[in-house]
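Write out structure tokens for Conserved protein containing a Zn-ribbon-like motif, possibly RNA-binding.
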Amino acid sequence: MRDDTAAPRFRQGSGRLCLDYLRTLRYRGTPAVTEELADSTALVAWVRQCGPAVDGPLQVPDVPDVLAARALREAAYELITAAVAAGGPALPATAVRNRLNRAAAADVPVPYLTAQGELRWRADDPVRAVLALVARDTLELAASPALLPRLHACASPDCGALFLDHSRPGTRRWCSMDICGNRAKKSALRARP
């Protein structure tokens, strides 16, 4: 069962699992940049909150696993931003490509139905399995020319989050209207004479 009450809470709603994962480096490109995957507890918390609800206990990753998870995030960011800049699939550095390909090749959570008809997920290594989903989602997004024009950076200068704009006109400006959009509206109101 998913534990939605566990801290820390991570921002979701970017439109793709891989983009939600990129948000774990909060305020990217700003002076307030914050590492949300500070340790193994944070990585497990992200997997519990953002990945599919995987049955069973999650093995606590060690420090090299946390560092590898961060490196995967940065490889995903590099590939996605390169694809957006190129207007289509872009070939990243070999090390980036290899990191993403290796992570994507890992086993992913497997769905099954319980006797009560509930859809559940299982994996031998839930953290690695959810990171494999992130890597696969990254590769799919970066190789999707139809989606890349709808991938935007939040218009808030204090945010830096990427999001996929699913709105019909494709003109969404904020990663979240509730947070960044609301702040911008309040600032604009305060700035009026």
